[in-house]
Amino acid sequence: KMWTPYQLFIAVGMVITGSINTLATKWADKQSAPGPNGVVHAFDHPFLQAVGMFIGEFSCLVVFQIWIRYQKWTIKKDPTKEVNFGNQKFSPFLFLGPAVCDMTATSLMYIGLNYTYASSFQMLRGAIIVFTALLSVAFLRQFITKKKWLGIFLVLVGLVLVGLSDILFNSNSQYGPNEVITGDLIILIAQIISATQVVLEEKFVNGKDILPLQAVGWEGFFGMTILGTLLIPMYFIPASSFSNNPRGVLEDALDGLYQIGQNSTLALAQIGSVCSIAFFNFFGISVTKQLNATTRMVLDSIRTIVIWAVSLAVKWSTFQYLQAIGFVVLIGGTVIYNNLAPIPCLDPPPQVQPINESKPEYSDEAASEKTPLLYDTQSITNQTA
Q1: pLDDT at 146 over 90
Q2: Could you tell me what percentage of the chain is helix, strand and coil, using 3-state DSSP and rounding each to the nearest 5?
C-alpha cells in the first residue's frame, strides 16, 4: 500500500528533525565563546542542554492546550462535531517517575555525546532494545521469542563492534581514547535508565487513554522543573575533575547562558536542538498513529544513517570499516527483533483467519495507546510474542 502525501511528509519530517536534534547538540558541543570573565572556552554544559530539551518537550503541552481550546471553540460553533480529547482525569504525577528517568538519561547522554562521536552516540542508543527486553522479562513477565533473542544478540555484537572501532581507531583530536571510551560507556548507562523509563511507562502509564502529545508535554514539564531547580545547587558543587567550565563546578548555567548570548552560532545550535526535539516528538507520534511503531523503528535507523553520513561529511568522525560492519549488524538485529525479516525456522506458524471474519479497525487512539515510543527512544516492550 502506497503512503499518502501526509504520511510521507511526517516520515521525512521525523528523520530530518531527529537528525537535526543530535547534530545540533554536537554542533553546540564543538563551539567556544567567552564567559562572564571574558575568557574564551569550550561550551560544556550538558545539564543546561538537557533543560533545553525538556523545554522543547514542554512546548508539546503548550501546543496541546492551544489545540484543545481551539477544538472546544469549534464545538461551540458546531455542536454536532465530535472530537476525542482522551482521558483528562488522570493524575499528571503518573509521569513523574518516567520524567526522572528521562531527565537522568538525557543528562547522561549529553555528557557522553560531549566525549564521543555523534555517529557512535546514535548507534549506541540501539542498546535500549537489549535493556528494555531484559527489564520487560524481569519486571513485566513478558515472553521473548527465540527470534527476538537472535535480534538482541546481533544488536549486542553490533554495539561491541562500534565500541571497538572507537577504541582501536580513535582519531579525535580533542579527546583521547580514554575519554571516548568513557563517553561510550556513559551513553550505554543512559540506555539502561531509558529502558527503565519505558518499563515504567508500560506498567503505569499505558492504557490510560492519554493523548501522546499531552504525555510528552507532562514529562517535559517535570523534567524542566526538576532539572531546572537542580541547576541552582549544581552552580555551587565543586566538580573540577568532571566539568570543564571555568569555575570547576558541576554546572555553571550562568556561564552557559552568557556563552550562548556571545556566540550566534552557538545560539543557533541551541535553538535548533530545542525546536527539533519538539517537532521530532510530534512527527514521531504521528508516524506511530498513521503507520505503526515498527515503521518508526525503521525510520529511526535511517536517522542513524543520516547522522553518520553528515558526521563523515563535516569530518566530525572518520570512516572506519569496523564501525560500518557494526552498524550493519546493529541494523540487522533491529530488523530481526521487530519481525521485519522472515526467518522460517524461528517464525511462529501463521494463524488461519476465517473468511467471514472481518479485520478489526483501530482508531488513532488505539494505535497510540500502547505505544511508549513517545520520546527519543527505541522502545520494544509491546512487540512480544
Answers
A1: no
A2: 65, 0, 30
Task: Please check whether residues 100 and 196 belong to one and the same domain.
Answer: yes
Separation between Cα atoms, residue 195 and residue 135, nearest integer Å: 7
State residue 131 phi and psi, 5-degree precision. -70, -40
Same domain for 189 and 239 = no
Residue 283 has a CB neighbour count (10 Å cut-off) of 22
**Enclosing domain of residue 153:** 89-209+294-343
**Domain boundary pick from 272, 290, 308:** 290
Q: Report the pLDDT value the prediction gives residue 354, as an integer from 0 to 100.
A: 54
- C-alpha 77/C-alpha 121 separation (Å) is 50
Same domain, 111 and 194: yes
pTM for this one?
0.77
Q: In which element (H, E) is residue 144 found? A: none
Phi–psi pair at 42, nearest 5 degrees: -70, 150
Domain assignment present for residue 371? The answer is: no
| Structure confidence at residue 206 as a pLDDT band (50, 70, 90) | low
Mean of the per-residue pLDDT values for the chain?
81
Does residue 106 lie within any of the structural domains? yes
Q: Are residues 97 and 75 in the same domain?
A: no
Q: Cα–Cα distance between 184 and 112 in angstroms, integer? A: 6
Instruction: Report which of 372, 380, 383, 385 is spatially closest to residue 101, judged by C-alpha positions.
Output: 372
What pLDDT, in 10s, does the model give residues 62-77? Answer: 999 999 999 989 988 8
- Domain check: are 150 and 246 in the same one? no
Residue 77 and residue 121 in one domain: no
Following DSSP, what letter does each residue of 256-325 receive, concatenated? HHHHHHH-HHHHHHHHHHHHHHHHHHHHHHHHHHHS-HHHHHHHHHHHHHHHHHHHHHTTSS---HHHHH
CA 185 to CA 216: how far, in whole Å? 27
Q: Are residues 98 and 246 in the same domain?
A: no
Lowest-confidence region among 5-9, 171-175, 321-325, 327-331: 171-175
